[in-house]
Amino acid sequence: MTKRVDVAGVTTVIEQANLGGGGQGQVHLVHMQKEPNRKLVLKELRSSISALARAEYLCRRNLSALSPAFAAPIVCEDKGDGKILQLIPFAEGVDLESDIERPLPQNLQTCLEFVSLIQLLEENGIVHGDIAPSNICIAPNGQVTLIDLDGYLADDPSVPPPDTVGQWPMLAPEQRNKTCEQPSRESGYFAMAVLNSMILFLRHPTDGLADEPAAVDHYMSLGHWPEHDRLPDPDDLPIAVLGQELADLFDRGFSLDVKARPGPDEWRRALVRALHNCWVHDCGQAFVAEKTTTSCPGCGAPVTVPATTAQLRIQILPHGPRYGVEVKDRTPIVLGRSTMSGLPHTVSGRHLEILPSGNKLLLRHVGRNPTLIWHQGQWYQLQEVWVDTPSATTPIQLRLADLEITIE
């Protein structure tokens, strides 16, 4: 018999019970009775005054409307039987540790999308509070979704604090030594560095170094990136593929000085630069090239990285900021919330791809929302088109969702 569940007046039908669960409660896959194709997650939480206040606050904020990459509750109800029910958008994909193995450029892009979402949360007064591999969902096309925001912290002092500290593999040193047992923005920055490391190297920073809890606590509390302490293995990705800037960010991310840990905007800017300077050597090894790069970090063969001076200047209209982006032949430039800070939620994380080739640019729409191009006094829907390299006198005018930009 089909089981129906009502949550705050929304009738749902359970498709798969006991889809999974965590420390905060059980989850089920459901669909709306009136919209069978709309999948949702039904989550059960243990009822308390604090849990209800926190759930209702998240529902009022409606983060999933801010960005579809936030799988945050949209309605909730205390059923009076010891349970609070939430309805949450269903995120397609798998958690980080179940994802397929991806090449370095895609993993850098995943890190970029992840930190951009953390930044967007912060800009709206919320800290995730439980950053972990199980709480980042990756779709087959690489789309990143943040899930399980039950452990969040809010800038609003009326919101009760979470009753969880986070997941042990991700904890900051001050949480491990019990000097700060509550999650904080700074402990979240530590967890963000841990997760970025896991995305790029496909393992926890202490894997192969320690198994026992006390030993893991030791390596996670040294004040530097544990990857430096690993004995090199021929199958390991060399740290050198990231370049010095990202390696330095990781060391600061694992710092014992909570104020030294980089926030999401600093990570975002460094990852954008890394993606713009990502090369693939003849041996197949991808790496972030720097001025001092003289050899491939993978095979050791000498390489010459030519200096690039060509730039595209991107202006957000009418009076928004200007972005300078390096142009390298056959290296795509991606525009969207991931690479252009402060864009409205209607602009996709990856919206437009620009591929330079010779004196031409291939413009390709890759986002969820429409892209328009201005040509001879009229807007046209853009899917894919070759255009001449623009200039100050012949700019390209585009509309990304409801945002207008020029490229020259």
Give a structural overview.
- This protein has eight helices and 23 strands.
- It is globular and about 65 Å long.
- The chain has a six-stranded antiparallel β-sheet with strand order 1-2-3-4-6-5, with helices on one face. Strands 15-14-23-22-19-20 form a six-stranded antiparallel β-sheet, with no helix packed on it.
- The chain has helices at 49-61, 63-66, 104-123, 173-176, 185-201, 213-219, 243-253, 264-276; strands spanning 4-7, 10-21, 26-32, 39-46, 75-78, 83-89, 94-95, 126-127, 136-138, 144-146, 153-154, 278-280, 286-288, 311-316, 322-326, 333-335, 352-357, 360-365, 371-375, 378-381, 384-388, 396-400, 403-407.
- 22% of the residues lie in helices and 27% in strands.
- Strand 9 (136-138) and strand 10 (144-146) form a beta hairpin.
- The protein starts with a strand and ends with a strand.
- The chain has 408 residues and is α+β, with helices and mostly antiparallel strands.
- Helix 3 (104-123) packs antiparallel against helix 5, helix 3 (104-123) runs antiparallel to helix 8 and helix 7 (243-253) packs antiparallel against helix 8 (264-276).
- It has three domains: 4-89, Phosphorylase Kinase, domain 1, CATH 3.30.200; 94-275, Transferase(Phosphotransferase), domain 1 (Orthogonal Bundle), CATH 1.10.510; 311-407, Sandwich (Tumour Suppressor Smad4), CATH 2.60.200.
- Residues 13-280 form the Protein kinase domain.
- It is an enzyme of class 2 (transferase).
- InterPro entries: Kinase-like_dom_sf (IPR011009), Prot_kinase_dom (IPR000719), SMAD_FHA_dom_sf (IPR008984), Tyr_kinase_AS (IPR008266).
- This is Serine/threonine-protein kinase PknF.
- It comes from Roseinatronobacter ekhonensis.
